[in-house]
Specification:
Protein name: S-methyl-5-thioribose-1-phosphate isomerase
GO molecular function: S-methyl-5-thioribose-1-phosphate isomerase activity
CATH superfamily of the largest domain: Translation initiation factor eif-2b, domain 2
Shape: globular
Helix content: 10-25%
CATH topology of the largest domain: Rossmann fold
CATH class of the largest domain: Alpha Beta
EC number: 5.3.1.23
Family: Belongs to the eIF-2B alpha/beta/delta subunits family. MtnA subfamily.
Strand content: 25-35%
Pfam families: IF-2B
Distance between the termini: 39 Å
Length: 269
């Protein structure tokens, strides 16, 4: 849109910094402000410097990309949804906006769902590295992760998050290393009848998912190999307490877990 003799977007990059139109001042004053730190992006979304679901999503995408190195767990991309995904949506939007970023992709055993995320990112042209599930803490210790972004299968009204097994360990490592831990979720995944995540039932899946692995042979044919004859335990999910979550990313904005109901007053009631 044009303001005076100049064309503006609602968010853009200029002189190496992200800038927005501070919509709190409109229509009385036209004010452009830079967003330099992750806290600036959080404040701009929380305090409504930017408004509207599309712009909120774009601002989150710019904020994530500004941090450059993102670690994600499991597959919360378009293969698991319909298009864009949840945890991966900001990554795609940032890349398409020309912002450089790199994604660490957990393999996510035992079903190796991280391979799906890696396939998605590769098809979209996003730089990424596929790593073992246990590498995340090491990467954080060495300053190679700027933030963690995961999805969720079920979220309590109090902000506890139930996601793929291994998510809790990533949150613990993130807290110990001062790395922000974000959870992206569509509001239908919020269970407003539940406040304590410890009561979420955890699915125990077939042991064969752990004792066998699937891959392709030299001819490209799918095959399965047995890696152990030992008894197997295979819980599919774990619960990350709200105290380990920096913020929840929703279609209505970014919010601290304990304040989730402020974004959805009609549901919380």
């Amino acid at each position: 849109m044009k303001v005076g003799e100049r064309h503006y977007r609602s968010i853009w990059i200029e002189a190496g910094e992200v800038r927005i139109i501070d919509q709190r001042c409109l229509p009385h004053q036209f004010r452009v402000v830079p967003l330099d730190t992750l806290q600036d992006f959080e404040t701009a979304i929380r305090d409504m410097w930017v408004r509207g679901a599309p712009l909120i999503g774009a601002t989150a995408a710019f904020g994530i990309a500004a941090q450059m190195h993102v670690l994600t767990h499991c597959n919360a991309g378009w293969l698991a949804t319909v298009d864009w995904g949840t945890a991966t949506s900001p990554l795609y939007q940032a890349h398409d906006a020309g912002i450089p970023l790199h994604v660490w992709v957990d393999e996510t055993r035992p079903r190796n769902q991280g391979a799906l995320t890696a396939w998605e990112l590769g098809a979209h042209g996003i730089p990424h590295t596929y790593v073992t599930d246990n590498a995340g803490g090491h990467l954080m210790q060495h300053g190679l992760v700027d933030m963690v972004v995961v999805g969720t299968d079920r979220t309590t009204a109090g902000g506890d998050v139930c996601n793929k097994i291994g998510t809790y360990l990533k949150a613990l490592a993130a807290q110990d290393n001062g790395v922000p831990f974000y959870v992206a979720l569509p509001s239908p995944t919020i269970d407003w009848t539940m406040t304590d995540g410890s009561s979420i039932p955890i699915e125990e899946r077939a042991g064969s998912e752990v004792s066998q692995i699937q891959g392709t042979d030299a001819d490209g044919a799918l095959s399965r190999l047995r890696v152990t004859e030992a008894p197997v335990g295979n819980p599919a999910f774990d619960v990350t307490p709200a105290r380990l979550v920096t913020s929840l990313i929703t279609e209505r904005g970014v919010v601290a877990p304990h304040a989730l109901a402020t974004l959805f007053p009609e549901q919380a009631a």
